[in-house]
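Reviewers of the previous submission asked for a worked example of the structure-prediction workflow described in the proposal, so we include one complete record here. The input consisted solely of the amino acid sequence. No template or homolog information was supplied to the procedure at any stage.
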Amino acid sequence: MLSEAARPYIDASVSVLREHGVAITTHFYDAMFAAHPEFKNIFNMGNQASGTQQQSLAAAVFAYAANYRNPDALTPVVERIVHKHASLGITADHYPIVGKHLLDAIQAVLGDAATPELLAAWGEAYGVLANVLIEAEKTLYAKAGVTPGELQTLVVKEIRQESDNVKSFYLQTLDGKSPGNFQPGQYISVAGTVDGLRQLRQYSLSDAPDQNWWRISVKREDENQPAGLISNWLHDDIDVGDMLEASAAFGDFKPAIDGEDPIILLSAGVGITPMISVLNTLAKRNPSRRVVFAHAARHGSHHPLRGDLRKARASLKAMTEVQFYETPQSNDEVGVDYQYSGRMALGKLGLDAYPQANIYLCGPSGFMQQQWKSLVGAGVAPSRIHREVFGPDLLDHIL
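From that input alone, the workflow returned the following structure tokens.
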């Protein structure tokens, strides 16, 4: 718990962090990577290039300063960070290095305003948060039965072209078995080396857990976008029979499979992948569950995993399925391939019939922001809305 002496300095930092947060985190990353270039193998350098990582850390620091007195608001953020850190192999030894460079960055950017008392308060605050993360990550590693950073070698059993820009990769152990159990909605980290830079990227598992494989369905990104480094490497350079290094399954986005309450799944683009994992699992374990499944795609050629949807539709008799195509093509048949043209509109889903249902969102940032605002504006309690995100969007509801 943060001491009473430190609290006034953290409280006073809120407006400063709102103004200078990105400058502080940008300085932080530059200095840390210069001193510890090996950290480039842990952090997403695509997000570094786009500025997303700097914005995410700035949002997290600001959120902590604004909400440290309200742990309930921070708990879901901490849980999401813990799972992400575990997928990357973060250890307790990383935290002192990060803490040093973060305090150095605060001092460098704020100059004389960074008094010894302010720096001491932030040192204490960082230590409190670091201890919470370290203990939670230790517990999560033990539960998963892995050591930090442990990866297993998997073989690519099969590759399927799911749409114009999405491929599925079926992964097995070297002796042809499932790599391990997971909960629908979770993801794995996949390691790849491109141009001498080793990187880890997270991909949602897109099939049910009780198969003898793991499946990830990966979207090809724009060649000019640094965020697509590993995804495009998988598309261009990985063939059937090749080996991949992957982590255990992590992630706190885990829609409940059991139970009788309705469940609402809203996705867009490649955000369909964890939702298909949920549908495939429900079809086997709880086929009578009432499900609202709505997906938004550009058009039919960008609508992956439609074969899985057909199979799920046959088993899930109580599923309501609605597809939105933003710009349907001439061969996209309304009423068959999709129900509505344009972007997803919640008013067309009949969600009023499910007043207590949990709602799960996955898709591009703009899509989730819009659906979140629309749901809350319609009176849906934020506690019923769950999103699969990694960046600063996670903090929208507490900033």
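The domain at 152-246 is CATH 2.40.30.10 (Elongation Factor Tu (Ef-tu); domain 3). We consider this example representative of the routine output the project will generate in years two and three.
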